[in-house]
Give the backbone structure.
Amino acid sequence: MNALGTYLLAGKLQAVGIISLLTVLSLLLPPFSYIISGTPFSLVTLRKGPSYAMHVLAVTVLLTTVVGYFTNLGVELGVAYALGVWSPALLCATVLRVTESQGLAVLAATGVGVILVLGIYLFTDDLTVWWQAWIDSFLQQNFAASEAGQMRELFDATLPLINGIIASGVVISLVMTVLAARWWQSRLFNPGGFRQEFHRLLLPKWLTIITFFCLLLSLVNTGVDQWLIRNLLIVLVVIHTFQGIASVHRTVFTRQLSRGWLIGMYSFLVFLPQMALFLACIGMADVWVRNKKSVSGDAE
């Protein structure tokens, strides 16, 4: 990792080459394509600054477009990654570079998720019909008729929430990408710095208040579009899950507990996704308590 990072940061041409290569390779692992392609670009942004990164982005888009033209990847490859991966990563990495606050970087990712939810909501009047048509087309192309019917039944239950689920998936990938790049930067230039910064991760108290407010609105019929509120709530809960993870890491480190606690936490997250809700509750409590202590400390 250190050798690759050093080469990546050696110059613009090296950065363009590595990012372009990893972008093409990321197509082989679709679930991790965001992280594989976005992490090196985020590292460039964190270390060299947004202006330098934008130059790298422009040349990378051009190179991947040319590659797509002469292969079966398509000329839209570079533009798609620029809009969906590199631009959001540039925003969050720039916020982290300027503020040195992972909490504000995560907050920037929250903004991307909220904009995505609202954008899709405004794009069409009936989200359920729009997603149903897309899912039907996908199932027909990739599954047999009997399997497609069974899959469709599973999707019907979550269909009204799919907007928020997809947006939260983007947010998770974006936060993991920027944090991975920060960890990479720490390994190269500031060993141990990532852990200290991650332990200080703190979301603003007003975001937690908005989350509680959205929760109440999602349960009470107020005339507001309930599904829109619930989709936004998914994104807000996911963000607080990262706060909860940071809180557990900080507690294990400060109390010198066994790393088995961390292994258990991540194992539950993988095999029991409902654990994310528990961690989100821990995160909300952490935000409230630490912000309250901060206010008390300032008053004294």
Q: What stands out?
A: The two ends are 45 Å apart (CA to CA). DSSP finds 14 helices and no strands in the chain. The longest helix spans residues 226-254.
